[in-house]
Write a structure and sequence with these properties.
By secondary structure, this protein is of the alpha/beta class. Helix content is 31%, strand content 23%.
């Protein structure tokens, strides 16, 4: 089993790149790899549980948040980036927690592959 560290710097509303990011995570989990995702910059929006998505549009944040129940998946939102964007702990989806950049650097040392979506 490979360990992936994924840095998500883009919001779920950035179209095909955001969709590709979620599909990449799903594919890694389908192949029984471990995936650690660090939500950074606008990527913290993937962790927001109170998003209002227009009817008929795909909700990539919801699709991402459903992955939190997978045993090989861990998602962390950067607390500083979240504070700058007004995201509070009560708005954070279940299964996602806040942490600092120190945790991201620890995961880099433990991972076989590093991927960034920006």
């Amino acid at each position: 089993m490979k360990r992936f560290a994924i840095l998500m710097c883009l919001s779920p509303d950035t179209g095909t790149v955001a969709q590709h990011a979620v599909e990449t995570i799903e594919a890694a989990l389908d192949r029984h790899h471990a995936v650690f995702v660090f939500l950074y910059q606008d990527g913290v929006a993937f962790g927001r549980c109170d998003r209002d998505v227009p009817q008929g549009e795909p909700d990539l944040a919801d699709r991402f948040q459903r992955l939190t129940s997978h045993p090989n998946f861990e998602a962390v939102a950067c607390i500083t980036a979240a504070e700058r964007r007004g995201l509070r702990s009560e708005q954070l989806a279940e299964g996602i927690r806040f942490a600092g950049l120190g945790e991201w650097t620890e995961q880099l040392a433990l991972s076989d592959r590093v991927v960034q979506f920006q």
